[in-house]
Amino acid sequence: MNPRKVFSMIGCHEVARISGYTADSHGNLVKQNFREREPQQDVIRINHYAVRSYEEFVEKQSRGRAAGRTRFITMEYFNRYDLNDIKDE
């Protein structure tokens, strides 16, 4: 997606376009919904993590949820998404 053509975000994975079309990393038009297509990661890949560390999580708690539906994120959220292979010290 050309960032200059983005009007606003619909969700964290889709945008509302001013004009134009969405293309994948190879320049092919995207005609399917985000969840209905096979992701590509041979040219570019963005990793999005729910949590990174306990310290980052505590800071995230103070900001609340990005979607705005729930203001407080519980420890249950951290325990569910803390999938690090490296043990925090």
Summarize the SSE layout with pairings.
Layout: E1 6-9, E2 15-17, H1 54-63, H2 75-81
Antiparallel strand pairs: 1-2
Outline of the structure:
With 89 residues, the chain is of the alpha+beta class. It contains two helices and two strands; from the N terminus they run ββαα. It is extended, with a radius of gyration of 17 Å.
Shape: extended
- How much of the sequence lies in strands comes to 5-15%
- List the quaternary state of the chains: single chain
Backbone CA Rg: 17 Å
- Unreliable segments of 5+ consecutive residues: none
Compute the number of structural domains. Answer: 2
**Helix-residue proportion:** 10-25%
**How do the strands line up in the largest sheet?**
1-2
Query: What is the structural class?
Result: alpha+beta
What is the rounded distance between the termini?
Answer: 40 Å
The H/E string reads EEHH
Biggest sheet: strands, sense, closure? 2 strands, antiparallel
Mean pLDDT: 75
Number of helices: 2
Instruction: Tell how many strands the DSSP assignment holds.
Output: 2
Can you tag this structure with a few keywords?
89 residues; 2 domains; two-stranded antiparallel sheet; extended
Description:
The chain is an alpha+beta fold and 89 residues long. It has two domains: 3-36, no CATH class; 49-89, no CATH class. It has two helices and two strands; from the N terminus they run E-E-H-H. A two-stranded antiparallel ribbon has the order 1-2. The chain is extended, with a radius of gyration of 17 Å. The model has no long low-confidence stretch (mean pLDDT 75).
